[in-house]
């Protein structure tokens, strides 16, 4: 059945009038007017003239009032239109609300009025509620997708983040947000990027956009698309080295900040549990727009990781003399995004079995999403990968096509644990699009270091104790140490904080989730013990753990962070007594 729209306000007024009718009927009759002495009759002409004058005066006043309000309305509309034309942030805010508010209200109506959760205890009612939401998802997903692709900015970044877990978004939304992880639309064309490079590097160009003084073979087609800029392939004229040149879209910083302000206001009443997350994200993006800072981050991370992990990962070398606040030039890593590499191997395996590649891939992903294939521990996943690799080698003669995804995920988790506790400097944005599989088939390329965080020693020591407590499954210690790390909630409930902290920093197993999906779980936490203060350092470490585990889960590998980070945490604690 179709959802019934809420009653029109006129209908509500009519109902009110009908309800008031009995009261009016029983009220005493109105008092008759007081008797007045008869007035002297006026001549008909004078009487009609006086009445006409009064009518003309009243009509003139009414017309003048209408003209005045019309003038004010036109003026306000013109002023707002001028403000929209002059202020891109205000225009985007207006567009957001015009798109989102009707959708939100429709979802709210179905949730609270037409198919409330309280009435969905019976199987039939629950099925009708689910079907109603499915219709909403199919109806509004294309609307949100078009708006996201048109507006880009932080909305594009938010879509990428939310698509990292298959249990957060409904399937119609998940289909297109997944694509945005590595198919973001181009916002900065090659010629405009060249002009930005000339301006930023202060090049002497014979014509607009001529970058020949420093680059040769500069390709106008971007090889990567980020939320705030584009990446182009080129070659250094001085050495012939292949480089990647990241160019920030002009004006994107102001747009991002306006978008974040809009979303903070929206989450305040629509998703209260996400308010503190939005505050932390706003602070985190303060350094995202300075490519000089990212260049320094690249140098620090490369120096700390390459000596030990160089056989498994590669961090590109930046060229400092060709970097500015809005341009970043670095070594080009030859390879493909990890997700693309996995999909390519799916297609190869499907072809060897004589099956349709798209159907083969979709079958595996759908099995993981619906739970027909359960996510496995890393140990079990690695054992099964070895057996599968041997079987395919014997059956189809394949070599090297089966990736050990569990080993890759364990490597990423271990590297970030070392960064957090040993180096005190870590990348807080291990996004799937920032992890490459290089040409040799086993080395990982790590890129995009705009969100690198320095952690003070005293915080790392408290965090190390927290991770050890999580590994021991000590609920009381976890709740206490989380408070010592700066987390403040309204009630400080130990049972709630243990589950919430375990989810963000360690694991999302059944004892933590207890049958709830991500959205319902976070709403439960906010309802039971609202967050008052979420320290930025703790948020970023939790986000790092969550993103790596979510990527692993998308490949069918379920990880727990604490066991991998515990050795680094204990080493830090021993070093400081």
What would the keywords be for this entry?
single chain; 577 residues; alpha+beta; 5-stranded antiparallel sheet; 4-stranded mixed sheet; 21 helices; globular; disordered N terminus
Descriptive notes:
The protein is an alpha+beta fold. It is built from 21 helices and 15 strands. The strands form 5 sheets. Strands 1, 2, 3, 4 and 6 form a 5-stranded antiparallel sheet that branches. The longest helix has 43 residues, at 44-86. 30% of the residues are buried. Residues 1-57, 73-86 and 369-374 have low confidence and may be disordered.
Explain the layout of strands and helices.
Blueprint: H1 9-26, H2 44-86, H3 88-114, H4 123-151, H5 153-162, H6 171-179, H7 190-201, E1 215-216, E2 224-225, E3 229-236, E4 242-248, H8 252-270, H9 275-284, H10 291-309, E5 313-314, E6 327-331, E7 335-337, H11 338-352, H12 357-370, E8 376-377, H13 378-396, H14 405-423, E9 425-427, E10 435-438, E11 444-446, E12 452-454, H15 457-472, H16 475-484, E13 488-489, H17 494-505, H18 510-513, H19 518-528, E14 531-533, H20 536-554, E15 557-558, H21 561-575
Parallel strand pairs: 5-11, 8-15
Antiparallel strand pairs: 1-3, 2-3, 3-4, 4-6, 7-10, 9-12, 10-11, 13-14
Helix pairs in contact: 2-3, 3-4, 3-8, 4-6, 8-9, 11-12, 13-14, 14-20, 14-21, 15-16, 15-21, 16-17, 17-20
